[in-house]
Amino acid sequence: MLILNRHTGHNGPLDPRDAETLGVGAAAEVERYLSHRNNHAPTPLHALPALAAGLGIATLHVKDEGTRLGLGSFKALGGSYAVIRLVLEEAERQLGRPVDVAELHTPPVRAIASGMTFGCATDGNHGKSVAAGARLVGAQSAIFVHAGVSDERVAAIARYGAEMIRVDGTYDDSIRESARVCAANGWTIVSDTSWPGYERIPGLVMQGYTAIIREALRALPQAPTHVFVQAGVGGVAAALAAYLALVLGKERPAFIVVEPARAACIFASAQAGEVVKIAHGEATVMAMLECYEPSPVAWRILSRAADAFMTVEEEGAVAAMNRLARPLGTDIAVVAGESGGAGLAGLLAVAEDHDMRQAIRLDAGSRVLIVNTEGATDPERYTQLVGVAPEMVLRTAI
C-alpha cells in the first residue's frame, strides 16, 4: 500500500533546527569524529544490475550497513556518536575549556566518562550502539529491552558490558521505563526517538546517520532518482531525507518511506497529517522496525522531505532477504537481516504494481538507492528465514 505525501508542508523548507542538525556542516563533523574510530571504514555500495534489469529500472544500488563499525547495523553510527559527543560536552563543562574528539582517550576525559551512565530503550541495534559507545569512552550503560527482543540480541548487547533491564510490554513501554529510571538515577538517556522537551539528543543520534547518505552520494556514479528507506520511529529515514533535501534541493530524488504493515505508525501519521500512535498488534518479522509511534522530530522532517509512504507485508520482507542472499547473474550476494531488506521489499512491491510505479514515476530510466540497514544481527533467525547461514552467503559474495 502506497500513499503520496499530501501534507501542507511537503516540499517546504526544513525547520531551521533540523537544517542545522542534518546539513553539510554537521555531516562533515560526523565524518571527522568517525576518522578517530579505529575500526571505521565507509560501508560498501553495491551495484545490482541484474536485479535492476529484472525490475525494469536503469540502476539499483544498495548501501550495505551490515558491516558498520563491527556492530552489524546502521545504528552503530547514531547511539555511539551521541555518547561520544555528550562525554566531550561534559568534559568541556568540568574542565572549563574546549575538548576535541582527539582527546577522547586522554586520562582527564576518561575519568569524567567513568562517572557517567548512558541508558536507552532498544529493539536490539540502537542499544548495542549505545553500549559500545559507553565502553569505548569508559562509561557505563543500562539498556532496556521489551518482551519481544530475542535472547540472542540481548546477549549481543550484554557483551559490551551493559546492564540489561527487561521491561514487560512493547518497545514504547520500554521507552517510557527507560526515561523514568534514567531520570530517577541521574543517568543520561540516549534515545533514538524524541518527545516534548527532549529533542537535542535524538537529533545527535540522527546526525550520526548522515554518514550513510554522504558516503553513498560520494560513491554513486550519478545521484539517485529514487530512494527507498525503511522506518521504525523514523530517525534514519528523516536523517537521509533531510540531507538530500538540503544538498540537492529541487534536484533531490523521490524519497519513499517503507514500514511493516503491522507497525506502520508513520504511514498512519501521513494519513492523519499529524503524529499518530497506533495500536499494538501482531508482532512483525521486521523486529527492528516494530514501533507504534513516530519520533516527532522525524515526522517534522518527513512531512516536508518525504514524497511517499508505503507498507510491506511479512512475506515481502522475507522475500527481499532471500533475493539479496541469492542474487541474479553477476550481482553480489548481500546479507540483510529481517529489517535490513525492507527498503528492497518496498521497491519490489512498487515494481510489480503499475499504479504505484506511475504514482512515484518509477520507470526504465530510474536510478534507485536502497539501504540495507542491518546484517544478520540474529544469525539463528536469519538462517531460519533464508535457509542458509549468513556466513555461507558471505562466502559466495567474495
Automatic annotation (TrEMBL):
SUPFAM superfamilies: Tryptophan synthase beta subunit-like PLP-dependent enzymes (SSF53686). Residues 40-373 form the Tryptophan synthase beta chain-like PALP domain. It comes from the Bacteria. Gene3D superfamilies: 3.40.50.1100. InterPro entries: DiNH2opropionate_NH3_lyase, TrpB-like_PALP, TrpB-like_PALP_sf. Keywords: Lyase, Membrane, Pyridoxal phosphate, Transmembrane, Transmembrane helix. GO terms for molecular function: diaminopropionate ammonia-lyase activity; pyridoxal phosphate binding. It holds the Pfam family PALP. Signal peptide: none annotated. The keyword Endoplasmic reticulum does not apply. Its cofactor is pyridoxal 5'-phosphate. The chain crosses the membrane at residues 227-248. This is Diaminopropionate ammonia-lyase. It comes from Phyllobacterium myrsinacearum. The lineage of its organism: Bacteria, Pseudomonadati, Pseudomonadota, Alphaproteobacteria, Hyphomicrobiales.
